């Protein structure tokens, strides 16, 4: 069984949901993760808030950010165990982040020194 990272991409980070909508989405996300965990296939996951975020660029240039007004932001990720990328994609299809217009979930295999790149 391999591990896959499901990366939550938000098309427009400037759209801020109401606290009530955020609470609903958080509950939906916890339920979704709970369903994966019930299959013993959830490894870990975290949100990626903008607070104190920095971007380090070429020649060590450091800027504040990323910021919500950029075209696309990464809101978080989870790592799951799956027998195939197709199974990981099926998990991704249930992600509540996909309720947002233009949002996506990127599915990537985690390389563990086995030559997978």
Write the layout of secondary structure elements.
Elements lengths: L1 E9 L8 H20 L3 E6 L6 E3 L5 E3 L8 E10 L2 H9 L10 E6 L8
Antiparallel strand pairs: 1-5, 1-6, 2-5, 3-4
Explain this structure.
The longest helix is centred in the first third of the chain and has 20 residues, at 19-38. The chain has helices at residues 19-38, 85-93, and strands at 2-10, 42-47, 54-56, 62-64, 73-82, 104-109. The protein has a single domain (2-49, 61-109), classed as Dimeric alpha+beta barrel (Alpha-Beta Plaits), CATH 3.30.70.1060. The protein contains two helices and six strands; from the N terminus they run βαββββαβ. By secondary structure, it is of the alpha+beta class. The strands form two sheets. A four-stranded antiparallel β-sheet has the order 2-5-1-6, covered by helices on one side. Strands 3-4 form a two-stranded antiparallel sheet. Helices cover 25% and strands 32% of the residues.
Distance N to C terminus:
16 Å
Strand content: 25-35%
Strands, count: 6
Classified in CATH, the superfamily is: Dimeric alpha+beta barrel
Approximate shape: globular
Tell me the number of helical segments per DSSP (H or I, 4 or more residues long).
Answer: 2
**Within the largest sheet, what's the order of strands?**
2-5-1-6
Q: Give the tally of structural domains.
A: 1
Mean pLDDT: 87
Q: Per CATH, what is the topology?
A: Alpha-Beta Plaits
CATH level-two architecture: 2-Layer Sandwich
Question: Helical percent range?
Answer: 10-25%
Q: Runs with pLDDT <50, length 5+?
A: none
Supply the CATH class: Alpha Beta
Question: Could you describe the largest sheet, including whether it forms a barrel?
Answer: 4 strands, antiparallel
Radius of gyration in whole Å, from Cα? Answer: 16 Å
Order of helices and strands: EHEEEEHE
Structural class: alpha+beta
